[in-house]
Design goal:
With 249 residues, the chain is an alpha/beta fold. Helix content is 38%, strand content 24%. The strands form 3 sheets. A 5-stranded mixed β-sheet has the order 1-2-3-4-5. It starts with 6 loop residues before the first helix and ends with a helix. This is 3'(2'),5'-bisphosphate nucleotidase CysQ.
Amino acid sequence: MTGQMTDARLAAHLATIAGRILLDVRDSAVFEGKVLGNAGDATANEFLCHALRHARPDDGLLSEEEKDDIARCAMDRVWIVDPVDGTREYGEQRSDWAVHVGLSIGGVAAVGAVALPGLDGGIVLSSDQVSAMPEPVKKPRFLVSRSRPAKEAVALAKAMGGQLVSMGSAGAKAMAVVRGEAEIYLHSGGQYEWDSCAPVAVAAAHGLHCSRIDGSPIRYNMADPYLPDLLICRPAYAERVLDLVASLD
């Protein structure tokens, strides 16, 4: 069945199932805290990697929880997966964690699905299911890390008369912009490709601006999967945000 699905439907299907698995692990009452996070990561990763290798055997695979096979760099199509984005939040049994299933084609985040199982009823946003976004508020809301807000976001929120909103995982933040709960997600503290591939694919499909904070494109399936920074925002804010970031240097 999965072999007959489009890439986007496959991503959404697998993210949904992984989310259910993670809720079952969480609700088992066997684990808590960091141990729960580790158990969830391992369990969801095993499912996602087995499923993708079965459904798309000719594609490459990069997962946060899997030993990296550098042979993927010679492949055009590479699935980039984060079984639990926001392991800390998941372990704390919060709602702001996510499951990422993304597909890089030619180095671009082309297809993706982000599951938010911790929300009431759970939701999955995908690159092939685009809905209209609510109108932005007058004072832009900047999504920042719970513990390490990006200094650029703090400075820009002050300059633009905006508001800082703290949230857990990168996927939860990116989807908050997609869902109209905020206008700008600017991160400069360093991430990895699995933190943003699926969220960027979904955000771009919804018409959001996605780039590095210097305005350059985000490239995926690199030999070193580290990504220093990220900007996802409403298009109306992109030029001003990029100009202000450049002025901080």
